[in-house]
Amino acid sequence: MSYVDLPDIHFTDQQVQSILDAALSSVEAKTGRTMNRADPDRILLLALVSEIIQLRVLIDQVKKGDLLKYARGGALDHLGALYNVYRLPAEAAHTTIRFTLSMPLTSPQTIPAGTRVGVQNSGGTMFFATTEAAVITAGSTTKNIPAAASVTGTSGNGFIPGQINTIMDPLPYVQSAVNVTESAGGADTESDDALRARIRLAPESFSTAGPREGYIYWAKTASPAIVDVAAVSPAEREVLIVPLLQGGELPTQDIIDQVSDALNDRSIRPLTDHVTVKAPEVVPYDITLTYYIASANVASETAIKAAVNKAVEEYRLWQKSKLGRDINPSELIWRVMSAGALQVDVAAPTNIPVTELQVAQEGAVNVTYGGLADD
């Protein structure tokens, strides 16, 4: 039996009516009298039984906190500590900023670590700071320097090249500073589900990363932004690792380097293994569909339209949030019909297989409302 097949378990009886009946029977047996509905003692007993039921629910929840399937928050953190697995903290997004001088100099120009460059039109509330000092050598005019967002979490992701361009710490002869890569890699504190999955894999880490699950475990420790990892051996002593980030994002070079560093630690990687980390191959697909709403639901037409658009967005996220997830139009149809559509005609996508080293990514999305239709 696998972990996901384990049946639900309860440590206390929480059936309100059976608890009340048992309490009434016990009191009536001991007092020798029947308690009618309007009996003040019965009302008092009902109040006590209500407290007892709430205590049983609390006891059940606390006891379930000892089990990996149900633990959350602090209880899950303590379970992880038993296996030396700790919740990954939030991380700041990273990018590369190109500093450009107004002219070539005859002496080196230092760009200190911590030099701040703000996001365009952010009013200084969002900025990136260089993570290391760098020197623009004499005769040169540019230098690419890594930088990290001023805040942790996903808010620093997605700034395209050229969008981080406001120098907040002016330096002599520095004419401009602008990001040349899209900011990425920012992640919120590791979620309960992600931490639970790593705890489940923890026994695979007790040795080196030789087993497939061991490589997956250690790869996920590199960043809380990683939601899925594929580990395969394309040839003898060769190991290929493919990580996927939250929201179906492809890993940046920074994330790839972090995973590679984690797996090539001498205490983790088997001596004879050669580990390569790369981004997943993208399998593109388009969404083209027309949906209809039942005439009987005309009063809810606006709400159903909004629900359908939301369902399509959720499908896009679902489709690209796992490696090897086949492109499945049936899932799209089910989601749109669950949102209230009567009929869905899907021209694209079609069923497309996706391997464990690939991830589906949507291209053009065209959702058309075809109007009202009779059942």
Please, could you describe this protein's structure?
This protein is α+β, with helices and mostly antiparallel strands. The protein has eight helices and 14 strands. Helix 5 crosses helix 6. The model has no long low-confidence stretch (mean pLDDT 93). The protein has four domains: 62 residues, no CATH class; 88 residues, no CATH class; 88 residues, GMP Synthetase, Chain A, domain 3 (2-Layer Sandwich); 92 residues, no CATH class. InterPro entries: Barrel_Baseplate_J-like (IPR006949), Baseplate_assembly_J_pred (IPR014507), Baseplate_J-like_C (IPR058530), Baseplate_J_M (IPR058531), Phage_Baseplate_Assmbl_Protein (IPR052399). This is Baseplate J/gp47 family protein. Pfam families: Baseplate_J, Baseplate_J_C, Baseplate_J_M.
